[in-house]
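Continuing from the previous page of notes. For each protein in this section, the sequence appears first, followed by its structure tokens. Read the first protein now.
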Amino acid sequence: MANTRFQKTPLHYIQYLALKWFCVLFGLLPYKTAVWLGRKATGAVRFVMKKRFNRSVYDIRRAFPKMTEEEAQATALESWRNMGGILAEFIKLTQMTPEEFKKHSRIIGAEKMLNAQNVTGGIIHIGHFTNWEAFGLAGAVYGVDKAVLAQRVDNPYVDEETNRLRNIFTGRTFYSNNEDKPFFSCMRWLKKKKMLGILIDQNAGSSEVWVPFMGRIAAFSPITALLAIKMQVPVFPVRVWREKDGTIVSEVMDAVYPPKEFSMENVRKFTKILVGYYEDWLKDNPGSWLWAHNRWKREAEGEAYLKAHPEERV
């Protein structure tokens, strides 16, 4: 039976036109003005989406028990404002030449990916921090032959436009929520000794491994660990932050090598190692993460599962 979730509707087209209007508006504005306006816009959205914003504050307080309510509110606000900044930066960056682009977004350690490219290939381990989309664009600008594993947006018009912009400097996208399973497409890509970007910091809806994250059990996709172990390729954690002047900096960290032997125990242990990078980045800059996502929505389910299967607790 065909999946109707991603079929085009008139409402989808209206939403797409609104997005295009924002793209035109931001395109006409100076870079810093566009980013300022984007941040203000999504910061104000908290008054409309009060329940979702309060959920962000709740999760922050759970992750950082020593934070006061005021500090958690400020952290959540920064996170929500960051979403608007991401949108504005993404639109402006896709309109630039590679030379202009490097003035606003740069990579430290790009040579680590370039050296692995066409030799071993590898997986880029990144999360929803600061502006992950800027890193994806920057990778292509710096010469990395990459693909990304992403979730398809429910609005097919917006999804097509986002994917076009995401790969405007070259690249391709595999979809994790496509009808076709992405695992083998990713394997074929890695067999070509290329780079593959994967984000696993959002809730996994199925085929999960249960790993503690910021003191609470969360469902993580095991796909990074599975691919790394099966293909025996290195994993490159990538941390993204902004300088005071607004420059987006992405740092490619030293490669992490997977266990030699495949087992689900090794998959869980390697996933926990990768989750540790997210925790370190989050503790260093709590407001840089996408708190609007309900990361622990399956916490009770995970606790119940691990109680019944204690051997899988890592």
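Done with the first. The second protein uses the same format. Note its length before scrolling.
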Amino acid sequence: MISSQPRSTFWLIVRHEARIMFRDGTLPLVAAVLALMVGCGLFVGLAQASLRDRMLVDVVKHERETQTENRQTLNSVLAGKEALVPFSNPANPAALAGTLAGRHATLPNAALAALSVGQSDLMPNYYRITYLSKVQFMYDTEIENPWNLLSGHFDLSFVIVFVLPLLVIALAYNLLSAEREQGTLRMLCSQPISVVTILGGKVFVRLLAVLAVTIPLPLAVLLLIRPEARGAEQVMLMLSWSMLVGSYALFWFVLAVLVNAAGRSSSANALIMAAIWTVLVLILPVALNLVVNVVSPAPSRTELASRTRVVTADALLE
């Protein structure tokens, strides 16, 4: 009976908090905004994954057609019917390996690629293999808006990393401060109930609402639209992804609890949580990137091209 009392009190707080948040419209509004963001991010991810799938199909098709065309041209040249310049002659090994029929190395999309598009454009999933210089690598990749390549697409990972903490802050910045400002915290503490139980019930309602939108929706869409995501290995990856998202959301709720425990006002809590979000999500990654660039700067592609040309010219003169 003693052990069941805290549990019953906890669920009483959960039901009471859920009713309050539904009636004032906070929980439905946050859930709707989060569902809209998750839907948009997932739509972009699925569109990009489908685009890259079609790209691979087109690359393979183009390679097959090019090989057929080269074979026909080669038969015509060997039969003496056509006279071609050396760089267009498939009988010339240099021309065939350089510009006419280089094979493509391809990297198929993973089944869960739609969950995180990110900066995948910086690593094209196909590359044409030829005997040409490495300088050609600079001009042989996909071309897209440089800002998109730098910042990545608005995908589901962007929503979880950047938007989800903001919604958690909107739900949890006044977990205790609102009760204190309304004068109900002392009344609650006068009952046989601990502050930990109060906070646990409040956090449980909010965390459940956030995860109920963030995790099942994208996984259900993936399982419905992409059959390759239904394998046992992919299901395990989905479970790992779900645990990661849940841990990330729980981290921000724990931060909100710690901020509320300091006893400040709701407005002060909101400002502190916004400042923490700015530091952890925006400033810290940029600062780490700057530190890495200072400690181990990336080589200049222009310098690479210049040195390659110099080495090639020196080799030709020897």
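What the second structure shows: Residues 4-42+154-266 form one domain. The chain has twelve helices and two strands. We return to this in next week's lecture.
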